[in-house]
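Review box. Two proteins, two foldings.
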Amino acid sequence: MKIGFEQEFFVMNSKTRELVIPVPKVFPFPDESGVLIEARGEPSLDVIEAIFSLKADMERLDMICSKNGYIMWDKPLMVVSRKERVSLSREFSKGISKFENLYGFTAHRNKLMEWTAGIHISFTKPTMISVGDEVRHYNSMWDFPTLFRKLDDVFADEIKETKRNPGFYELKQDGRVEYRSLPNNVSHMKIITVLTELLKGA
């Protein structure tokens, strides 16, 4: 199984500790909402390598922040005022929501004025077949609901404490499946330990 990580952060003014909205265009992966930035690691067959690739991109973002008088904030919830939301709606468009939920939840439990930030875990199962003399590569389907339910159970406290709901995922056009229920302040070491154990033999 190949795993990749994306982690969302709020951007704060390093002097005033005020939320920076909209997110400046100096960042390589600003969120479509104009509120968050994303660190993106390279996908890997090894969970440890995938996490430390994410950490490398976090360092790059942190350098950009320091250069511009900002800090990255891994708080999973942030209040965004109605005035700021109206201003953002004029300049940014989040697009159509494509996520689904294993249990029928339609959203997290945050209040309307609270913006959420999370860690998204992307899974693919690379497969190849021989067709005559040709080798073809594709991402095959697999039993992701079972794995995601196990992740929901192991991280139940973190999900509950940050007003999130379990079971959120998104199917990508290239065959990836993205688990989207974890807040952005989850321990990376816990993720390594849990996924290494759960993916044995996958």
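Next protein.
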Amino acid sequence: MSAGGKIVGIGCGMFVLLFIVLLGVLPGMICWPYTINSWLAFAGKPEAVEWWQGALIGLIPGFGQLSIPAAVVTWIIMLFL
């Protein structure tokens, strides 16, 4: 493999890594603030989590993808509370 091929391989690898990180950040910045703020409101506390804080939580591996089922479960539970 030539040096140019290695550079392209590194570039593609970085793109894939960035894509995987964004898969956690995007749902995290939407779903974590909804989930946490819903439970804070239920507990009588002021809503305190902003979208960028949810994005930071989404950077933790696995937590970004976990935000979707957490938001769905919260939504279903809040229908009955």
